[in-house]
């Protein structure tokens, strides 16, 4: 047992007998760990920002509807506004922010053109908490209150309707009693962001929409975000308990494109990580193998002096455990230093408009996730040490006479 | 002579060489497969999506894309369609009237896009005809029949045999009103289409919308998307001559194009990281072998070999390693890809979900010269450039010091 304790300092000293070789292995491990972490961090940040971007357009992290609304989005499927239990849950800690809406298919007419749109009645103050859209005004302003007589449409839609800020448009939609409701509204604001939303949505005050459509305080949907310390599944479960008759869905169900994209990236990243680990293992075993070959004579001498093959294996393994451990730590430190300039976010202004279309945010916030870091570092370390078994056994297996005669 | 030396050097430590070859082969094989897979999936996604309704390209009245109104019309569309069908790569051209109307059934009314189509050629362009769930598709003898999406039918509360009233504005500004009988209900899987599109006989639509002898668009199709893409220059010439405009798939589906471009851009990061890491590992191994052989190089120098020759020898070793590794990778990666290209890969995601984006649940990679050689080529290039590091180190060797192993 005492002898094994001796191996520690011996291994450490062995490492620095040939600093060049040690540094090269160290570099392989450190750069490998660094690139695994760097790309992982970048992709996580990218995914997070594109998800947030697309959810903060209109969807929110989840939505509540009357059952059947999603199949037939119209006035026919509305729900009451304030029912005690639901309101309690919405204002509870599980929900971070929520916004009530009326959302129906409608037709918008200017003096020259007619287009089909989705009319959304909103409470402006609540809307600002779940959506970034009220902040993306190109001209004019967003709605000031939910009774205001006015409409906010996309800048692109205004061009297609051949109309502009301050002009009146006519909005038609089916009312609760089945007749075609009609309202003339001045355009008070133009919003601009991604083209599909610009063409599709027009915003009016919630109260104004309800009275025009004959919805007596009723809603089409409630968009919500989970509270800062609540999990989305728990929030959804709480809301489902509070309103069993309503249809509460997460963004995964509401926005399948965003969800599929995320699934694709996740499986992609997993494959990539596996390949990186294999490459690291090959890189490590290659350098260690060579280190062992160079020291064949030394191992022969040790054996001749009475060291057991098992002890030699232990020694080589210990060396590589130390070496790879230091390399992994260097990689992590390198990564942390790399991230320093980006603590305030990494602007992606240099990328094309395509990123915006697919929901990529303008600014990434790369963060080193401690769990990922520890997991990846441990995998590299364990994998590296395990692969060293091969060179270590090669070293121990050579008979002393042959080993000492080498070179 | 240097090449022979380099070759022998490689096999002095077979394990080392085999491991290096393995890492180069893994990465280059993987690159071949992933690139082919991406090409294949995006190709399928494009074709499936375009086949649902758009067609692989369209001829349109000038300005119709930005402002789809009836008065932007193509005159004598049948003749132009016939000419377009004569373009090599294009097999079918179908004129369409694209109107906009409110459909009503009793008290329920919904806004819809009303498309006048020629049933025979339309069925060869759009897959809607093959997704009829109830009833049948339009036929040449139909006069007042229509087919509509299942969501639209459900919203209107109308079934096969039922009647819908259509109210819109005609080309001359007058009221376009008609009553149509539902012949069939389709389910394309794309909610936007299933909710908004009604198809009716071409001649009837021309009458209803006051579009006599005109159409708004001519949808084009061919054996494959690429064949129609190759025909674009000829179509452009035809369009210029006849005063219409051509829209290719990128014009018609800009969101899909952007998503695909973005996916290629982000996956470039993946590829770059793999190439860089494997190049780095190979170089490190070579650098170690160079250090190990310092004495030997000193001997060679003393025997009169020039440092640049030794450098070239080392560089040749590296290049041979990269080329052989890539060749193995391309062979294996290409073989696996070809095999999967014939069997397809079942993707473990809800098929209904995928159908919305035009992705079938069985995916086929598509191996091409580009997808087979781009990744490995980049890898060889990266290793060749990185190989300058050991090359430069060898150049600095002096015989006396090298022979002492310094």
What's the quaternary structure here? heterodimer
Based on secondary structure, the structural category of chain B is alpha+beta
Largest sheet of chain B, in brief, is: 6 strands, mixed, barrel
Helix content of chain A: 40-55%
Mean pLDDT of chain A: 83
Q: Please state roughly what percent of the residues of chain B sit in beta strands, choosing from under 5%, 5-15%, 15-25%, 25-35%, 35-45% or over 45%.
A: 15-25%
Tell me how many strands of chain B there are. Answer: 14
Strand order of the largest sheet of chain B: 3-4-9-6-8-7
What do these coordinates show?
The complex is a heterodimer of chains A (407) and B (406). Chain A has 407 residues and is an alpha+beta fold. Chain A contains 16 helices and 14 strands. Chain A has helices spanning 2-15, 19-59, 84-90, 124-130, 155-160, 195-200, 206-213, 232-242, 251-254, 256-294, 296-304, 309-339, 354-357, 370-387, 389-397, 400-405; strands spanning 62-66, 79-80, 95-109, 114-122, 137-140, 151-154, 168-174, 180-191, 201-205, 218-219, 221-226, 246-250, 346-347, 363-364. In chain A, the strands form three sheets. In chain A, strands 3-4-9-6-8-7 form a six-stranded mixed β-barrel. A two-stranded antiparallel sheet of chain A has the order 2-10. A two-stranded antiparallel sheet of chain A has the order 13-14. In chain A, helix 2 packs antiparallel against helix 10, helix 2 packs across helix 12 and helix 10 (256-294) runs parallel beside helix 15 (389-397). With 406 residues, chain B is α+β, with helices and mostly antiparallel strands. In chain B, 56% of the residues lie in helices and 19% in strands. Chain B has 17 helices and 14 strands. In chain B, the strands form three sheets. In chain B, strands 3-4-9-6-8-7 form a six-stranded mixed barrel, surrounded by four helices. A two-stranded antiparallel ribbon of chain B has the order 2-10. In chain B, strand 3 and strand 4 form a beta hairpin. The two termini of chain B are 27 Å apart. The interface between A and B is large, with 57 and 55 residues.
């Amino acid at each position: 047992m005492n002898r094994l304790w001796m191996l520690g300092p011996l291994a450490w000293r062995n490492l620095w007998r040939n600093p060049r070789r040690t540094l090269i292995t160290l570099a392989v491990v450190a750069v490998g760990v660094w690139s695994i972490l760097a790309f992982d961090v970048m992709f996580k940040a990218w995914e997070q920002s594109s998800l947030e971007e697309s959810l903060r357009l209109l969807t929110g992290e989840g939505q509540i509807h009357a059952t059947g609304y999603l199949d037939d989005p119209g006035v026919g499927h509305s729900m009451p506004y304030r029912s005690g239990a639901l309101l309690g849950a919405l204002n509870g800690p599980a929900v971070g922010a929520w916004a009530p809406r009326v959302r129906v298919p409608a037709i918008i007419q200017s003096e020259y053109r007619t287009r089909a749109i989705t009319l959304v009645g909103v409470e402006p103050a609540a809307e600002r908490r779940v959506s970034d859209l009220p902040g993306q005004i190109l001209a004019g302003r967003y709605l000031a209150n939910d009774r205001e007589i006015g409409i906010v449409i996309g800048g692109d839609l205004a061009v297609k309707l051949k109309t502009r800020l301050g002009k009146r448009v006519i909005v038609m939609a089916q009312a609760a009693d089945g007749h075609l409701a009609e309202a003339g509204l001045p355009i008070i604001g133009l919003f601009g962001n991604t083209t599909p939303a610009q063409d599709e949505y027009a915003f009016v005050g919630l109260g104004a929409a309800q009275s025009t459509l004959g919805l007596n305080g009723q809603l089409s949907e409630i968009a919500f975000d989970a509270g800062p310390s609540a999990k989305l599944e728990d929030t959804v479960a709480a809301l489902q308990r509070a309103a069993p008759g309503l249809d509460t869905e997460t963004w995964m169900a509401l926005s399948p494109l965003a969800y599929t994209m995320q699934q694709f990236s996740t499986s992609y990243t997993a494959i990539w990580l596996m390949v990186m680990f294999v490459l690291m293992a090959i890189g490590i075993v290659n350098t260690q193998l060579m280190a062992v070959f160079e020291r064949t004579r030394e191992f022969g001498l040790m054996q001749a002096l009475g060291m057991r093959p098992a002890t030699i294996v232990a020694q080589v393994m210990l060396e590589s455990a130390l070496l790879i451990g230091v390399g992994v730590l260097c990689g992590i430190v390198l990564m942390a230093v790399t991230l320093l300039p980006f603590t305030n976010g990494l602007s992606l202004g240099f990328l094309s408009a395509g990123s915006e279309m697919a929901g990529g945010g303008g600014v990434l916030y790369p963060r080193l996730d401690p769990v990922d870091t520890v997991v990846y570092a441990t995998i590299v370390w364990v994998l590296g040490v395990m692969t060293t078994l091969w060179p270590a056994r090669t070293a121990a297996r050579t008979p002393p006479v042959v080993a000492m005669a080498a070179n | 002579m240097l090449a022979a030396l380099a070759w022998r050097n490689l096999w002095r430590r077979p394990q080392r060489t085999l491991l290096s070859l393995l890492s180069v082969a893994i990465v280059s094989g993987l690159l071949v497969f992933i690139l082919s897979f991406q090409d294949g999936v995006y190709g399928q996604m494009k074709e499936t999506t375009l086949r649902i309704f758009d067609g692989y390209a369209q001829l349109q009245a000038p300005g119709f894309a930005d402002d789809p109104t009836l008065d932007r019309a193509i005159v004598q569309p049948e003749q132009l369609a016939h000419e377009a069908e004569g373009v090599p790569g294009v097999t079918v051209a179908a004129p369409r009237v694209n109107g906009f109307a409110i459909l009503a059934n009793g008290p329920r009314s919904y806004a819809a896009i009303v498309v006048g189509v020629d049933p025979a050629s339309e069925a060869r362009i759009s897959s809607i005809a093959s997704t009829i769930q109830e009833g049948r598709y339009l036929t040449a003898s139909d006069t007042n029949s229509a087919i509509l999406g299942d969501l639209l039918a459900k919203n209107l509360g109308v079934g096969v045999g039922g009647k819908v009233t259509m109210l819109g504005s005609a080309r001359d500004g007058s009221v376009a009103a008609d009553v149509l009988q539902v012949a069939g209900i389709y389910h394309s899987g794309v909610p936007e289409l299933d909710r908004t599109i009604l198809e009716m006989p071409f001649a009837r639509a021309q009458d209803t919308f006051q579009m006599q002898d005109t159409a708004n668009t001519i949808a084009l199709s061919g054996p494959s998307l690429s064949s129609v893409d190759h025909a674009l220059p000829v179509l452009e010439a035809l369009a210029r001559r006849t005063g219409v405009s051509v829209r290719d798939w990128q014009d018609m589906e800009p969101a899909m194009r952007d998503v695909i471009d973005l996916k290629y851009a982000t996956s470039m990061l993946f590829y770059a990281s793999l190439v860089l890491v494997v190049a780095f590992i190979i170089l490190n191994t070579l650098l170690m072998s160079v250090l190990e052989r310092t004495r030997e190089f000193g001997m060679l120098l003393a025997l009169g070999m020039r440092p640049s020759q030794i450098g070239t020898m080392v560089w040749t070793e590296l290049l041979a390693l990269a080329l052989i590794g890539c060749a193995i990778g391309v062979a294996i990666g290409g073989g696996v890809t070809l095999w999967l290209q014939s069997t397809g890969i079942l993707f473990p995601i809800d098929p209904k979900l995928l159908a919305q984006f035009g992705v079938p649940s069985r995916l086929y990679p598509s191996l091409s010269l580009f997808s087979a050689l781009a990744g490995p080529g980049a890898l060889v290039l990266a290793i060749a450039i990185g190989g300058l590091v050991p090359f430069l180190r060898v150049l600095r060797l002096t015989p006396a010091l090298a022979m002492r192993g310094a």
